[in-house]
């Protein structure tokens, strides 16, 4: 084993500077070789420190003397680390959801509303999520709150109430673009609830009630107009055909008799009454 160590050390020192040092440097490679040698010599003991396992939904970012190795995350499955020189950080790749706390927002038309939402995101680049930001999860939460304020600040109250899908899509685009350098992929944003001041709710309720009453009056007027036109057309038909009036009389008698009344009225044509009046 000492011979192997001397051979590896001499090979490392015989390489050109660019190929020999790499990203660790000569001293770094010497420390790594020494650590690997001790790990081999104390194999039955060091196996418990060198052997690591990550789940299917996890990746491990390995740091060797403070530098990320291979520029690629390890996993899933089994991987080895060198004691004393290597450390690693596990990254969860599953989709994470969190609620945006209610935010007091002043809309474009100077109305204060309280809006909350929910964000779904996942880690797309484990190395960037570890190396480019201190806490990717916490940073994404804070950015979602400020993005919600910025987006809703450019909308009117009517747009906030009616265009939730457009607001959510705009928020998703802004968040996804801002978190791209952090290795975060924002998959979905939803607006949960929009709370209005009590005075504004009463004003909107009164406005809606007045609008409904106005529509009801218009509909009733249109119905009366249509009924008048129908009666006019019916009267013209009856005037053209006297037998139609007799049929209408019989139909009215049938309706009255069907209601089990004790009194039955027999309507007489006006021409019969006029005959007696002339006499």
Automatic annotation (TrEMBL):
GO terms for cellular component: plasma membrane. It is found in: Membrane. The chain crosses the membrane at residues 30-51. Residues 49-208 form the Band domain. Keywords: Membrane, Transmembrane, Transmembrane helix. It comes from the Eukaryota. Pfam families: Band_7. Its main location: membrane. Gene3D superfamilies: 6.10.250.2090, Band 7 domain. Belongs to the band 7/mec-2 family. PANTHER family: BAND 7 PROTEIN-RELATED (PTHR10264), STOMATIN (EPB72)-LIKE 3A (PTHR10264:SF87). This is Stomatin (EPB72)-like 3b.
